[in-house]
Amino acid sequence: MIELSAIHRIFVVGDQEVHALNDINLKIGEGEYVSIMGPSGSGKSTLLNLLGLLDRPTGGTYRLDSRDVTSLDDQEQAHTRLEKIGFVFQFFHLVPRLSAAQNVELPMVLAGVEPGLRRTRVDEALAAVGLKERAHHKPEQLSGGQRQRVAIARATIMRPRVLLADEPTGNLDRHSGQEVVALLESLNAAGITLLVVTHDPEIGRRARRQIHMVDGMVEEDNSSP
Amino acid sequence: MRANDVVRLAWGTLSSQPGRAGLMLAAMAIGVAAVVILTALGEGARRYVVGEFSSLGTHLLIVLPGRTETTGAGPSAFVGQTPRDLTIDDAMALQRTRLVRRVAPLVVGSAPVGWGGRERESVILGSTAELLEVRHWDMAQGRFLPPSDPQLASSVCVIGAKIRRELFGSQSALGQWLRIGERRFRVIGVLASEGRSIGMDVEELVIVPVASAQMLFNAPSLFRILVEARSRESMDAARTFVIDTITARHQGEEDITVITQDAVLATFDRILRALTLTVAGIAGISLAVAGILIMNVMLVAVTQRTAEIGLLKALGANMSVITRLFLTEATLLASLGALIGVGIGEGGSYLISHLYPALPPGAPLWAIAAGLGVAVATGLVFAALPARRAARLDPVQALARR
Prior knowledge:
By secondary structure, chain A is α/β, with parallel strands linked by helices. Chain A has one domain (32-57, 78-223): Rossmann fold, CATH 3.40.50. In chain A, 36% of the residues lie in helices and 29% in strands. Chain A has helices at residues 44-51, 74-84, 100-111, 115-128, 144-156, 174-189, 201-206; strands at 2-13, 16-28, 33-37, 59-64, 67-68, 85-88, 162-166, 193-198, 209-214, 217-223. The longest helix of chain A is centred in the last third of the chain and has 16 residues, at 174-189. Chain B has helices at residues 3-15, 18-55, 76-79, 88-93, 130-135, 161-168, 210-217, 235-249, 261-304, 306-315, 319-355, 365-391, 395-400, and strands spanning 60-65, 100-115, 118-127, 139-142, 156-159, 177-180, 183-191, 196-197, 200-201, 205-209, 224-229, 256-260. In chain B, the strands form two sheets. In chain B, strands 2-3-10-5-7-6 form a six-stranded mixed barrel. A two-stranded antiparallel ribbon of chain B has the order 8-9. Chain B is elongated and about 105 Å long. Chain A binds chain B through residues 49, 52, 54-55, 74-75, 77-79, 81-83, 87, 89, 91, 93, 95, 97-98, 106-107, 109-112, 154, 158, and chain B through 1-2, 5, 9, 12-13, 16, 307-308, 310-321, 395-396, 399, 402.
């Protein structure tokens, strides 16, 4: 599914080079549940952005579905993001002026899906995250946990193969965090490949495969049965 | 992405910030309104002037002695190329066709005019009865020169309103004997004041029979011959006839110039049209200012909405989608502002036409179309840079901000 070989990502800050990712080799199979942990600046977010095609590696190759996506142009990358990748962010990143339903609809709008089909799929998606009766609420009228659930509904509305979550519980209280994790895990159970970047060891441990990163390198890669 | 979705999304962004959108709308509206009102004024002035000219008679031919071309370079100048005089007989000869309705020979001079103890210098016009019709003048009192043989010098005159006022004051001028130069003329009519008529103030004229004027100024030649063609369509034929007739009478020498009222009219028309365009152009500057405002506000919007742009990119929007969203926003603003501006402009020119009824109302359609077009184009041009900046935002950095 995901195959990284000899990935490097070097940032130039002033006249210094920062090696955010240093020779990453990684294979992630279809339907895996992976947590990526590590201290701040270890490169875990950079890795996630790279996997999500928001960033390009300085060197190395990235294969997604056995297709080299490293050298795709803007349009093809955007299309791949639209079709295959869902993002969940720490700060939800909902559009404040749009209702929950409109936020969920956004990827389908970008994809040019026919409006009738959009409506039924939004209804389904909101029902799946338990927010059917909140469809017309604006983000500011929702709690943190509800917002993140809207964000997850939006991330999965195009039925992507991979879900990338960057500190999905980082901004939530314990209870809401658990709800969100449970939701993500249920999606994984339904077949989606789930990658979670987190600080929280408790959440990280729940994943079947745990990757620890330090200084831009994979330090540990444990799979628990 | 579907076009109506692009518009809906852009519209949503705009309406979520009514203050910002309102400001840009106002700028655009003022610019377009300025264009519409100023062109309406310029166009109104043009139509007013053209209308005034047309009332003088658009099928008028003016015959001048002499030929407007350079001749006699070198020694031949000494041989002499003096054009023959235009005579009253020449003028009368022009009447012998169906193409021509009226002919008025014209002699112009200046002489002291006096009555009792008062005297003033005045323009003396020598002509025939036809002149009244040719120039579309009206009489205030009495009658115009009586129709008679133009070769006959009779001692009657028609005076302008101002001459009457200055010389006769409150007394009746009709029937009085007016001194013109060395001769005396009986006043038989007073012209209605009608303002100016191309270069001559009607109020200050004294009109005498053409033969009398020739005697007064001791000049056998006519100054002009005014020829009124039967219709606008017969102008060209009449012109040819005039030239042929005079040439034949002048031993085959084409020594006259024929200009038409149309030519004069066309010149004024051109001048005023250019003026209108200039004024419209100046108003167009305010559109450019509105465009720069749009650009400025859009650039701020890109900065404010960095996170949203990053999100759209993460969700799978490519650069062209982002560009389209921003350009659509600008186009919506510009065209809406322009529509409001056209409304204000139309209202304004309606108001002006009420205050100054002499001006024909309304901006020409081309000005409205141009105002709208330029507004939308300005919006697009000035939004291009902000849109490009938005499209090129790095999504990782855009999302990291919060």
